[in-house]
Hints:
By secondary structure, this protein is mainly alpha-helical. It has helices at residues 2-52, 61-70, 75-83, 91-99, 103-110. Helix 1 packs across helix 2 (61-70) and helix 1 (2-52) packs parallel to helix 3. It is rod-shaped. The N and C termini lie far apart (104 Å).
Amino acid sequence: MSNDMEKIAQVLAQIPALLRNLSAEVEASRVKNTELEKRAQAENLVAEMEDRGLVDTGTSRQERVDALLNSDKDLGVVKEAMQFQLGDLSAADVADDIAQGDELTNFLVQG
Length: 111
């Protein structure tokens, strides 16, 4: 019976180290998952920016994604900002509004 108790004691003695190792692995996996999710979000934002013509065409997609990730900007805020659209506003509309402005505005704009 004492031989069985020794085996049980040996197994029980290994449990704390095993739990610490498993906890460290879970934390490392959580960090890696967070990084992968953030990269995927940045890639989606860059793709959307490209679709809207909001990017520097002199850089590659990878460079844009890396720049966005390295900027430490909140990607959720960037996404929200991109949701704002100008609608049907065009330079011609602005020019028409200025032409119909008051005398001071017309003087300042037209010289």
